[in-house]
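for the writeup, i need someone to sanity check this before i put it in the appendix. the sequnce is what the collaborator sent (i think, or maybe the updated version? ugh). structure was predicted straight from it, no edits. if anything looks off just tell me and ill rerun, i have time this weekend
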Amino acid sequence: MQKWVDTRGGSSRFSQGQATNLRSQGLGSLWSLVLAGGHGERLRQYTEECFGAYRPKQYCAFMGKRSMIQHTWTRAKALSLPHQVVTVMDQSHWGYVRTQLIQESLGRLVWQPDNRGTGPGVFLPLSYIRAHDPHATVVLWPSDHFIFPAEPMIQVVRDAAALVQEQPHRMILLTVPPQSREQDYGWVIPGDRLPHPGGIQVREVRRFVEKPLGAQLEDIALSGGQWNTLVLIAKVQTLWEAGRQCIPEVVMPFEEHAGGIGTSNEQQRLLHLYRTMPSRNFSSDLLSLIPQQLHMMDLTGVCWSDWGRPERIHETLAYMRGHELLEAKGQSARQTWMKAGQHKRVQEELTVVTG
């Protein structure tokens, strides 16, 4: 039995009739958008050495038996119903991912004809969500990040989604405390704390700096800069309006594409659209231009790493080996945040990640 929807040839599940039914639900629900369209060129040589042949990093199991995208799907399905997990992939990746898809119970795959950067990579699948559930809250999940343990992060995302549901104009970005003066990451400079009756710690974003120059890092660090995880929680329409504002050359063609979703010529229309689709970066061409529309929530109690370079993978593997040794001695590497029952969950997750 097929467990996913392949949108390359259109699907009745994307029909306008179903979209109308979903619109009648009113408030919308929580969807997950998994970003897996990149080619992982910076790790090409490393993946060839590890696996004997090139494959995009998100489909690699650098640790244990499950790939990075499979771990991302697990996190996404902890928040969203399986049919509300939408994954964008490059159509050239089918050979790398088909065996992994058989093991998953997923919702929708959206195949981009070509990689035009994270701007189109976000708004193409977002157009499918918007067509079905325009009132939805959406969580953006990069598929090439290491996160352990996942539960604290999932709880923060739940809190952020609840806040966005209450205040739809907000877009919330998850950030992590920096461990080094990293130039390849995006940095978020915090502003004032915002009061919230639920005790959720939310701050304004004063400035967003994508891949800063070395001379900027000292000032950014002194300003309390945090690393951007690119995990963003927002209402679909709020994010869409931000796209119209910053990258209309990307968003407006996707509005036209939405009219063809579910039709027999859907893929042909998408191929035609991508012939003139510009390359845009979601962080530098959108987020960095609208700091006043962003809010940030700190992600603590986890090991987070963007596996964009081999040395980051090596650092994480060394960390996890140390974590395994502590667990074997009956100690917890996260005693500062664990409560009753959490230790067992971390042990179970450790088995999944490393087994």
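The chain has twelve helices and twelve strands. The two ends are 27 Å apart (CA to CA).
thx in advance!!
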